Amino acid sequence: MPRQKTPIIRDRSCHLCQNALEELDYKDVRVMQRFVSAYGKILPRRRSGTCHRHQRIVTQAVKRARIMALLPFVIQ
What is the pTM of this model? Predict the structure, then answer.
């Protein structure tokens, strides 16, 4: 009988909730890179550890930073 893998449950808390950040500035590239993968994709909630409300704010900020050419759309 094959052994089933047990899921690893990590206790991740929202980075933005911990630091009491309500607004996320799209011009702050260092903070933005925390939520973007090495390929330039926006990390999902389960990987980044953000709450639902802040994930929506992160997504909007990353998209705005891409349009303003602060973050690349695709990293080759």
Answer: 0.77
